[in-house]
Design a protein that fits this description.
Blueprint lengths: L3 H8 L7 E4 L2 E4 L2 E2 H8 L3 E5 L1 H21 L5 E6 L6 H8 L4 E4 L4 H10 L8 E4 L5 H12 L3 E6 L16 E6 L19 H12 L5 E9 L8 H18 L7 E5 L14 H18 L6 E5 L2 H4 L3 E12 L5 E5 L3 H4 L1 H5 L5 E4 L7 E3 L1 E3 L8 E2 L9 E3 L7 E6 L5 H5 L13 E7 L5 E7 L4 H7 L4
Helix pairs in contact: 3-9, 8-9
Length: 462
């Protein structure tokens, strides 16, 4: 009978740069996962920090190559959107690579203040303030502007600009978010966020053009599906660029575009995406439309969130029981929950790379994976490339471990890290993995598994 290793090797181009097998067990970016499990146990979340810098460097490389190849006269600027993961160890790692930040909430601003106090974030870096802004958020932005930070509010509605009147600041650089159309199969036609195409020129002429402090520096474009080689994406980007050209002719200060909605991440070992091709196509399309309209090309800002941190994350579980519920449905029960710890699996039917950690030399069979909550939706039974899940056969006393990979974006935020989870399933341990100056693995326990006392306090019993 074929082994689990045979199955993976024959199904995918395996091993990969990221995943290898040694001594019957999986390695993730050169990290021996069984060593991590022996030290920390399961369930366990891990963050492999070097992956973050690797992705930032790669994005800069491919856009840099495209700009050089096409003799594009604008610059490329890399921003990280903090909503993907707000953890300090993530944002500090991002900032090590000379990046800028994009915010979406009032509480992002105290985080930036803390980073500035610690010497991790200087005032020259961009703070692109996105989102619909309530009074506290607006006040924080006003404070940043008056304190000399390089803060750029992105106007999301026609009244927001009034909040920046009367500040003791010489110049306030503004951006306008354009309300893009959603994909044809979406529940509604136009995004609720941003300002309509038909209102933008009037907003500029009436509120910005002759204002002594305001300058319109950037147009912001966001596509919820991210960057894709699809007719929908190219159509929306072209429409946005024609608006940029129209506005640039009456607004000489406008010199930057923000193409929000980032690169996708790998969700299957069979996944393919030509990042270099897409970067070239984006730059070429922008340049072609600007040349056609006889306007200077803009600087290009990207705000990559999932792409920055997604592939740095993984969640590791033990198989704690197997249950044959009828003649053909064999359940492997994990020591955690998909609903609470990987909520995109439940809420969006998201697929991740799922692999066995150990027992790669053993035979395999088809299974269903079940979580610990009482909810019937707490399961995982298909992968991105096939509507099935296969894992090694569990025999004897040796435990089986499995990993879900590229889970580093949004899962803690959506799952409510450190809060109250469905069926009071505790948040698992979280371990940070880095490399020292000699390229040796260094691990740090960021958080222990959530304990009963924490939950009792949150629920008001303590």
């Amino acid at each position: 009978m074929r082994s689990y290793f045979d199955l993976i090797e024959q199904t995918f181009d395996f091993p990969t740069k990221e995943f290898k097998v040694a001594k019957n067990a999986l390695q993730f970016n050169g990290v021996h996962l069984m060593d991590i499990i022996r030290e920390y146990g399961t369930p366990l979340k891990i963050t492999y920090l070097p992956k973050i810098g690797e992705h930032i460097s790669y994005a800069r490389e491919i856009f840099g190559k495209a700009i050089k190849k096409l003799k594009y006269k604008g610059d490329y600027v890399y921003c990280y959107c903090t909503k993907s993961s707000h953890f300090r160890f993530v944002i500090e790692e991002v900032l090590k690579h000379d990046t800028h930040l994009e915010t979406s909430s009032a509480f992002d601003i105290p985080i930036i203040r803390k980073l500035h106090e610690a010497g991790k974030f200087d005032k020259d870096r961009y703070i692109i303030c996105n989102g619909f802004k309530r009074p506290a958020y607006l006040q924080y932005i006003r404070d940043l502007l008056q304190d000399g930070f390089n803060c750029m509010p992105v106007l999301d509605n026609l009244k927001e600009i009034e909040a920046y009147e009367g500040l003791d600041v010489e110049t306030i650089n503004l951006a306008i978010r354009i309300a893009s159309d959603e994909e044809p199969n979406f529940a509604f036609y136009t995004s609720r966020l941003g300002i309509r195409y038909s209102d933008i020129n009037a907003l500029y002429k009436e509120k910005i053009q002759n204002h002594p402090q305001f300058k319109l520096k950037m147009l912001h474009f966001f596509i919820n599906t991210g960057i894709k080689d699809s007719a929908y994406y190219w159509s929306e980007l072209s429409r946005f660029m024609y608006k940029y050209c129209e506005l640039r002719k009456i607004c000489p200060e406008l010199d930057t575009i923000d193409i929000g909605g980032g690169f996708p991440i790998q969700t299957s070992l069979a996944y393919e995406f030509d990042y270099q091709y897409m970067a070239e196509q984006i730059v070429e399309n922008i340049q072609w439309i600007c040349n056609k309209n006889n306007v200077p090309v803009p600087n290009i800002v990207t705000e990559f969130g999932s792409y920055t941190v997604g592939e740095s994350g993984a969640v590791i579980y033990s198989i704690i029981d197997q249950k044959l519920q009828n003649d053909k449905e064999l359940w492997y029960m994990i020591d955690g929950s998909f609903i609470t710890q990987l909520p995109d699996v439940w809420g969006m039917n998201q697929k991740y790379i799922m692999l066995a950690i150990n027992n790669w030399d053993d035979s395999f069979h088809k299974v269903q994976l079940g979580g610990l909550t009482c909810d019937s939706m707490d399961y995982y039974n298909s992968e991105a490339h096939i509507a099935e899940v296969f894992l090694p056969i569990v025999e004897g006393n040796e435990p089986q471990y499995i990993g879900f990979f590229h889970t580093g974006a949004y899962q803690e935020s959506l799952g409510g890290y450190g809060g109250i989870q469905h069926c009071l399933i505790p948040a698992p341990k979280h371990v940070i993995i880095d490399r020292d100056e000699d390229d040796k693995i260094v691990t740090t326990l960021f958080a222990n598994e959530q304990d009963p006392e924490t939950m009792l306090k949150l629920l008001g019993y303590v």
